[in-house]
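hey can u check if this looks right to u? its 149 residues, i copy pasted from the old doc so theres a chance i mangled smth
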Amino acid sequence: MNTKDIEQLIELLEKSTISEIEVGRWGKKIRVSRQGGNVVVQNSGMVPAPSQPAAPAQAPAETADEESSQQGLAIKSPMVGTFYRSPSPEVDAFVKVGDHVKKGDTLCIIEAMKIMNEVEAEVSGVILDIQIENAQPVEYGQTLFLIEP
């Protein structure tokens, strides 16, 4: 995939009513999405990003402000998938608000393409909040838990 292909994806997105396009080839992915009226290109491969419009400089600052207004460390989703609080419906959740966790403890499972991926605590601490409901879809980078280290 080259810069011209990416530019064509941007044009397609701008001409349509869809909000996101993701294309993968040979293990490399490009996601072009519309966020707040701006086009954002996320490159998870070795393809150079185009010189066309990208996220404005203030967007990361706004995200940082939102996160700093929340207390605790945000544990974010490492992938797109379905969030599960327990390994099966008959079993208790891995963690609840107020639970003490150690670094490496399993917090949840994210199912992606029929593969169950465990999300582990990045730090030891107390679960302050669970920000998503069981069996709901999650996006890459979406906050799942707040932990007070």
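The first strand starts at residue 20 and ends at 25.
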